[in-house]
Amino acid sequence: MAPDPEHRLGELMESSNPSFETVMSCVFGIEPHETRTYLALVDRPGSTIDELEGPLERDRSTINRAMTTLYERGLVRRDRRLLEGGGYVYQYTAVALPEVRAMLHGALDTWAATVHDVIDEFDGR
Fold first, then answer.
1. DSSP letter string over 68-123?
2. CATH number, residue 23
3. How many structural domains comprise the chain?
4. Once rounded to an integer, what is the mean pLDDT over residues 4-33?
5. Which of 5, 50, 55, 58 has the highest Cβ tally under 10 A?
6. pLDDT at res. 124
7. In the prediction, which pLDDT does 5 show?
8. pTM of the entire structure?
Protein backbone atom coordinates (compact mmCIF):
# COMPACT_ATOMS: atom_id res chain seq x y z
CA MET A 1 0.00 0.00 0.00
CA ALA A 2 1.34 3.40 -0.97
CA PRO A 3 2.02 5.87 1.82
CA ASP A 4 -0.09 9.00 1.87
CA PRO A 5 1.77 11.69 -0.02
CA GLU A 6 2.30 15.07 1.54
CA HIS A 7 0.00 17.01 -0.73
CA ARG A 8 1.04 20.52 -1.61
CA LEU A 9 -2.43 21.55 -2.72
CA GLY A 10 -1.96 25.03 -1.34
CA GLU A 11 0.55 25.66 -4.11
CA LEU A 12 -2.22 25.12 -6.64
CA MET A 13 -4.17 27.98 -5.09
CA GLU A 14 -1.30 30.31 -5.95
CA SER A 15 -1.54 29.68 -9.69
CA SER A 16 -4.52 30.66 -11.80
CA ASN A 17 -3.40 28.42 -14.66
CA PRO A 18 -1.20 25.57 -13.34
CA SER A 19 0.41 23.13 -15.76
CA PHE A 20 -0.38 19.41 -15.65
CA GLU A 21 3.11 18.86 -14.26
CA THR A 22 2.48 21.33 -11.43
CA VAL A 23 -0.88 19.75 -10.60
CA MET A 24 0.67 16.29 -10.57
CA SER A 25 3.60 17.38 -8.39
CA CYS A 26 1.36 19.17 -5.88
CA VAL A 27 -1.36 16.52 -5.64
CA PHE A 28 0.97 13.53 -5.36
CA GLY A 29 3.53 15.38 -3.23
CA ILE A 30 6.36 14.66 -5.64
CA GLU A 31 9.17 16.81 -6.97
CA PRO A 32 9.11 18.28 -10.49
CA HIS A 33 11.94 15.97 -11.61
CA GLU A 34 9.87 12.98 -10.43
CA THR A 35 6.95 14.21 -12.51
CA ARG A 36 9.30 14.51 -15.51
CA THR A 37 10.47 10.95 -14.83
CA TYR A 38 6.86 9.73 -14.89
CA LEU A 39 6.20 11.57 -18.17
CA ALA A 40 9.38 10.11 -19.70
CA LEU A 41 8.10 6.64 -18.81
CA VAL A 42 4.78 7.34 -20.52
CA ASP A 43 6.74 7.49 -23.79
CA ARG A 44 9.12 4.64 -22.85
CA PRO A 45 7.22 1.78 -21.20
CA GLY A 46 9.32 -1.05 -19.84
CA SER A 47 12.43 1.12 -19.39
CA THR A 48 15.23 0.41 -16.98
CA ILE A 49 16.93 3.09 -14.95
CA ASP A 50 19.97 2.89 -17.25
CA GLU A 51 17.77 3.46 -20.30
CA LEU A 52 16.36 6.65 -18.78
CA GLU A 53 19.69 8.31 -17.94
CA GLY A 54 20.07 9.84 -21.41
CA PRO A 55 16.54 11.12 -21.99
CA LEU A 56 16.25 12.53 -18.46
CA GLU A 57 19.81 13.86 -18.28
CA ARG A 58 19.98 12.68 -14.67
CA ASP A 59 22.34 10.31 -12.89
CA ARG A 60 21.35 6.77 -12.05
CA SER A 61 20.92 7.38 -8.30
CA THR A 62 18.57 10.34 -8.86
CA ILE A 63 16.46 8.31 -11.29
CA ASN A 64 16.44 5.36 -8.88
CA ARG A 65 15.15 7.56 -6.03
CA ALA A 66 12.51 9.06 -8.34
CA MET A 67 11.36 5.58 -9.36
CA THR A 68 11.09 4.53 -5.73
CA THR A 69 8.89 7.54 -4.97
CA LEU A 70 6.75 7.02 -8.09
CA TYR A 71 6.38 3.33 -7.28
CA GLU A 72 5.33 4.13 -3.68
CA ARG A 73 2.75 6.63 -4.98
CA GLY A 74 1.31 4.02 -7.34
CA LEU A 75 2.32 5.95 -10.45
CA VAL A 76 4.60 3.31 -11.97
CA ARG A 77 4.63 -0.45 -12.14
CA ARG A 78 7.81 -2.44 -11.72
CA ASP A 79 8.59 -5.79 -13.31
CA ARG A 80 11.69 -7.90 -12.77
CA ARG A 81 13.52 -9.06 -15.90
CA LEU A 82 16.01 -11.89 -15.50
CA LEU A 83 19.40 -11.33 -17.10
CA GLU A 84 21.14 -13.99 -19.18
CA GLY A 85 24.25 -14.09 -17.03
CA GLY A 86 22.26 -14.21 -13.82
CA GLY A 87 20.66 -11.53 -11.72
CA TYR A 88 17.84 -9.24 -12.72
CA VAL A 89 16.98 -5.68 -13.59
CA TYR A 90 13.77 -3.77 -12.93
CA GLN A 91 11.76 -2.46 -15.85
CA TYR A 92 9.34 0.38 -15.11
CA THR A 93 6.11 1.30 -16.85
CA ALA A 94 4.04 4.38 -16.12
CA VAL A 95 0.48 3.85 -14.94
CA ALA A 96 -1.75 4.87 -17.85
CA LEU A 97 -2.64 8.56 -18.03
CA PRO A 98 -6.41 7.94 -17.74
CA GLU A 99 -5.82 6.13 -14.43
CA VAL A 100 -3.54 8.90 -13.18
CA ARG A 101 -6.11 11.51 -14.19
CA ALA A 102 -8.73 9.60 -12.17
CA MET A 103 -6.35 9.52 -9.19
CA LEU A 104 -5.78 13.28 -9.51
CA HIS A 105 -9.52 13.99 -9.74
CA GLY A 106 -10.20 11.78 -6.72
CA ALA A 107 -7.55 13.48 -4.58
CA LEU A 108 -8.75 16.94 -5.55
CA ASP A 109 -12.40 16.01 -4.99
CA THR A 110 -11.55 14.71 -1.51
CA TRP A 111 -9.63 17.88 -0.71
CA ALA A 112 -12.45 20.10 -2.01
CA ALA A 113 -15.02 18.17 0.05
CA THR A 114 -12.91 18.71 3.16
CA VAL A 115 -12.69 22.44 2.47
CA HIS A 116 -16.46 22.59 1.86
CA ASP A 117 -17.05 20.83 5.20
CA VAL A 118 -14.85 23.37 6.99
CA ILE A 119 -16.82 26.20 5.41
CA ASP A 120 -20.18 24.61 6.18
CA GLU A 121 -19.28 23.86 9.81
CA PHE A 122 -17.98 27.34 10.58
CA ASP A 123 -20.41 29.05 12.94
CA GLY A 124 -18.72 32.44 13.26
CA ARG A 125 -16.76 31.77 16.42
1. HHHHHTTSEEEEEEE-TTS-EEEEEEEPPHHHHHHHHHHHHHHHHHHHHHHHHH--
2. 1.10.10.10
3. 1
4. 83
5. 58
6. 77
7. 60
8. 0.83
Answer yes or no: is 71 within a domain: yes
Instruction: Name the residue type at position 48.
Output: T
Does a structural domain hold residue 1?
no
Q: Which domain holds residue 82?
A: 9-121
For residue 2, tell me if it sits in a domain: no
Segment 70-86 shows an average pLDDT of 94
Residue-level pLDDT at 2: 46
Residue 100: Cβ within 10 Å count: 20
- Tally of CB atoms within 10 A around 79: 11
**Amino acid making up residue 18:** P
